[in-house]
Each structure stands twice: as structure tokens, then as C-alpha cells.
Amino acid sequence: MNLFTFRRLSLILCAFLLVAGCAPTKTESPDSGQNQDASANNNDVSALNWRVPDFTYTNQEGKPFGLKDLQGKFWLADFIFTRCPNVCPPMTANMAKVQQELKKAGVQVELVSFSVDPEYDKPEVLKAYAEKHGADFSNWHLLTGYSLEEITKVTKDTFKAQIAHQKGTSPDVPLLVTHPTQFYLIDGTGKVVRFYNGLQPDAAQIAKDVASLNKGK
């Protein structure tokens, strides 16, 4: 094996490790019972009765925030961590764009981002990270203040997705986490009703879904 081939294989291996370590997990299909990517068209999970358990965590201002604050409101949830080397920055930027577009359309939806690295992601860390990506905190709540075990259980039981930590590949990438990359739409009762691809979200579709669900109340 010559030096060029060795270097090329090393780069490919490093790229694979980065993707595998912070890769999207899959969400259960409402029709087949099998797993499917969030980019699939059939994203209606309202019949599956996925319910968010009662919680009170800590937001980016260091204040308590919980399910009771979301009662009667539609909200869009995702899972991120500030040390994420790949998918989280575009997800967070996408959430900011969705936030802006929904506000322009007059659609009232709260946004909630759960950290999957709660020990590191203190309130001030989350706030600085979100500000960097254009967040408007008037209706966006970034949450921490729980154990890794707790958020892992909530993610598995409610959102049917996995969280898994592993050591990073370098000092610049100290941590890799497998976590969902979907945006989940939750209704005012705490039931998950839709999910979307967080790497390619369609704000217009989210607005249509909220309008449709509001009519069906």
C-alpha cells in the first residue's frame, strides 16, 4: 500500500467515525412498525399515542421550564448538543429559520431543544450556542438540568429514538453522540403528532400541519 492510498483510507475512516458517532437515529413508522428515516413522507404518528411525560427542567436563562408551560400550545422539539461536530449546527440553524418563517406566517408554535449532553451544556453554554445560530428566545427554550440517563429514557420511551455517547476522535471533537435529528411536533396535550427531517425541514408543511390540527380540535 503506497502513502497516497494509506492517507485516503485514513480520511475515509475518520469521516465514517464522525458520521457514525453523531448520526441520526430512526423513527418508528406508523404503518409498517418498521423503522424509517425522518425524511419519509409518512410522518403522522398521532395514532401511536406517543406522550411526553411531565417534566420540569432548566432553560437557557437558568429558570425552571416544564410541560405545564407548554400546555395548550403546539411545540416543536429537537435534540442537540453544543459540542456536536456535524449535524447539530445545521439543525439549530434550520430551527432558527423555521422559527422566523412560522412567525412571518402568523403560526404560534413554541420551540424546545433538549440537550443530549446535559453535564456540559449548562444554561449559559446553551444560550451562547443558540445566539450564535440566530435564535429568538421569545418562544425558544433550550433545556438542560437533568441526567443523561433521564433524557435517554425520555427519548427512547416517547420519541422512539436512541441516545448513545462515545469518546470523540480528537481534542477538537471530544464527544460523539448518536441522537435523533428529527423535529417533532407535539400538541397541547403533550402528544407527538408529526415528525420532520431536521436537516431539511419544510416550514410551510409544518405551518399547514399546525393549521390542520387546529381545525380538528
Automatic annotation (TrEMBL):
Residues 46-215 form the Thioredoxin domain. GO terms for molecular function: metal ion binding. Disulfide bonds join C84-C88. Cu cation binds at C84, C88, H179. Residues 1-25 form the signal peptide. Keywords: Copper, Disulfide bond, Metal-binding, Signal. Belongs to the SCO1/2 family. This is Protein SCO1/2. It comes from Laceyella tengchongensis.
